[in-house]
Amino acid sequence: MLPAVVKLCCGISYRHLRSMAGLQRTAVAVIGQEITHLQRSGQIQHHMRKLVGLNYDEPTPEDINSVPAKEDQLVYIKQGQEAMRKALNMLEEKDGWNVEITQSNGDVICSKVIPGSTKVFRLEAVLEASPDELYDLLFVRLEEMHEWNPSIQHIKVLKQVGPETIVTHEVSAETAGNLIGQRDFLTVRHSSKQKSRIYLGGASIKLESFQPQEGFVRAEDGPTCIIIEALDKDSRRSRFTWLLNMDVKGWLPKSIVNQTLPRAQLDFTRHLRRRLTASTTLG
């Protein structure tokens, strides 16, 4: 399984989901508020009044949480926010999705060909964990992922850009039966919280100081997105939606890649469930 397949480790139109249009508006509001209230040179700058043609409500004073950021940090923050916006746009489009895999436990993977992009995959599952619990595992403690996911050799946070944005380097493990082989990834990841939903988005970036390493093919993510939503107010169960959008690079036939990626999503979800079960047992 490829490490990028855990992206967010940074992608909805099923009957058990809420209206996708409502989801899109909420997500856009989250991103819009963050961009709008970044503090720069002691002034509040207003950016992106409209995202993808949709208005978002002006936040009330108590909603404002200004984040001091240096000039170089703002670049990464905006890259992460833009990646999330694009990924949510893909999810918002209801037409063109085709079912790839349906599991007996209810997990479903659909695919869609995006113009000018590779084939993208959307996994939907229900997990026995709260949104905050999943956020902790998939973002806050990201560097520990290799401990419970055997497809990961390591994930290292290269830059911590405030509490919501990080830049990471990830290397896949060399495992038997991996048709695609080892890859490494350089990714900007961004997170947003809105009431009962958590959004994790990301995309590949380039750093002059961190060129592709010898012996690895550097694959590219994105934009990708994970949406974690509480099933109800008092439940510890979460609806998990994951858009996977990746170019593995190299000379692999598309047919092999398109068979491997959705299976890798299922593998990741299986490892994640085992980790959650182990936490419950220890707790």
Automatic annotation (TrEMBL):
Pathway the protein acts in: Steroid metabolism; cholesterol metabolism
Task: Give the GO cellular component terms, alphabetically.
Answer: mitochondrion
Q: Which GO terms describe its molecular function?
A: cholesterol binding; cholesterol transfer activity
Domain of life assignment: Eukaryota
Name where it's found: Mitochondrion
Task: Give the GO terms filed under biological process for this record.
Answer: intracellular cholesterol transport; regulation of steroid biosynthetic process; steroid biosynthetic process
Question: Coiled-coil stretches, from where to where?
Answer: none
Q: Mind listing the UniProt keywords for this protein, alphabetically? A: Lipid transport, Lipid-binding, Mitochondrion, Steroidogenesis, Transport
Q: Which reaction does it catalyse?
A: cholesterol(in) = cholesterol(out)
What region holds the START domain?
93-281
How this chain assembles, per its entry, is:
May interact with TSPO.
Q: What is this protein called?
A: START domain-containing protein 1
The opening ranks of the lineage are: Eukaryota, Metazoa, Chordata, Craniata, Vertebrata
